[in-house]
Amino acid sequence: MLKKLGAFGYLSSQEVKDNGVVNAGHLDQALALAWVKLHICKFGGDPSKVTIAGQSAGAGSVMHHALAVNGDLGSLLFDKGLAQSPYLPYQPNFNDAIPTSRYYAFSAAAGCPSSGSVFSCLLSKSAADLELASLSVTASSTQGSWGFWPVTDGVYIKNRPTAQLTAKRVNGNKLLVGYNAHEGPLFVPGPDAIETQADLLAWMALWFPNLSSAQLNSILAINPNSALSSASGPRFETDGLNTGGFNAINTSPDGVGQKQRGNNIYAEATFACPAYWLADAYSGNPGKSSWLYQFSVPFAYHGADINAAFGPSTPSLPSDITLAFRKAWGNFIVGGNPSIANTIANGASSASPSAYHPASNWPVWNQNAPQFVNFNTTGGTLATVELPLVGPYPQYEGPGIKNAISVQNANTWEAYRGDRCAFYKNLGPYMPN
């Protein structure tokens, strides 16, 4: 949502706030949610059981509505939240240097002054002019970034997400949150741009503009990898368990070496760790609960779980895995628990469909001993597929694909992802987010 609205939803500066509101995109969503709450009964719905859902920037919106008004809205707007890959870039104050500089860049691109009072001039411009100006600012941003984001406005969004999530000040009662195994490749420059550690640091300085060189190097230290990038590979999936020393820090179907190091830094800081932090905020919080998943069906790039949830199916997504994923969603929305039956988790093509499966008793997220469900498959025939911005990548196609869904330890997963997420949260005041 925020990526699509651009300046129309998230233009921010002191002058914008003095003349109206910032975070207008989120306020529009809140108005829509209030309308649903008031009128859903006229469509056969239950106003006490509203579920909001979103993917990527939309999942970031779910997160922000969970944080809205310091978490004091309770279940006023929704009961349950479903967030696919919650997007959390840095979140400055509405009048900080970065949103203010983009406000003036937007003004100049629209044909108005680049400093001083420009609001009246912007009001005189056509919607088409403003749309092109918004596109211009976003086009000049670092790969993986956009021109306009939500900001801390002191009214609807009162705090940094990492701070408020740590304080467990959240709206709604239940949350299902997840991410994909390889969130980074679409947002990180290719292996020809990131071959060495120096290349990686140069990109990181653009993506994390507020961090010092010491802080950037500390991120490298918790993502140890001395190998050079290689476009020829070998590139392959990891099992997440660090078998043989291979994990998301150093290899994926998209890259190896410094390129994959960057992929995982972006993936964890922007999507995977915010999913952990969101789940944490509902854990041990009276009357609230959460569940977490990772979608790992190769090649599990950003957005891959959309096909599993809504279709259309692809050669790597046979009916067994899509049925399991959709049942988890449906069970959460209807009954408030994403657990799926043994026969669904194992899949009809399993040798023992009725055998006990731990996903039939999906563990509620426990911040002190976190477990999640990993949606994956095994079998099939290796094929090469082309993905825009990524290039050729390996995936497995049917027949012969079977479910390989499992319950895993979220802390030790991918060479102690839990530790890295705790580290990124400590950087929250500096990013800021």
Automatic annotation (TrEMBL):
Source taxon at top rank: Eukaryota
Keywords: Hydrolase
Name recorded for this polypeptide: Carboxylic ester hydrolase
Entries under Gene3D superfamilies matching the protein: alpha/beta hydrolase
PROSITE patterns reported in the protein's UniProt record: CARBOXYLESTERASE_B_1
Species this protein is from: Podospora anserina (strain S / ATCC MYA-4624 / DSM 980 / FGSC 10383) (Pleurage anserina)
Signal sequence interval, chain numbering: none
Family stated for the protein in its record: Belongs to the type-B carboxylesterase/lipase family.
EC annotation from Swiss-Prot or TrEMBL: 3.1.1.-
Residue span, Carboxylesterase type B domain: 5-379
Top EC group: hydrolase
A GO molecular-function annotation: hydrolase activity
